[in-house]
Amino acid sequence: MTLSQMIIKTLKDEVKPAMGCTEPVAVALAVSKAKELYCGDLSLENPDFIVDVAVSPNIFKNGLAVGIPGTDQVGLVVASALGIVACESEDGLEIFKNITRKDIDRAYELINAKRIRLKIADTDAKIYIEVKVGDQVLFGKSIIEGRHDHFSLIETQDGIEFYEEPSTCKSAQINPLYEYPLYELVQEVEKLPYDEIKFLLEGYEMNRKIAEYGLDNTCGLEVGRTLHKNTTRGILSDDLMNRSMILTAAASDARMSGVSLPVMSSNGSGNNGITALLPIVAYAKSTAVSDDHLARAAAISHLVNGIIKSNIGRLSALCGCGVAAGTGASVALSWLMGATQKQLEGAVQNMIANTTGMICDGAKIGCSLKLATSASAAVQSALLSMGGVIVPQGNGIIGKTADHTIKNLGVLSRHAMDTVDQVILNVMLDHVSE
Question: Which GO MF terms does the UniProt record name (predicted)?
Answer without folding.
Answer: L-serine ammonia-lyase activity
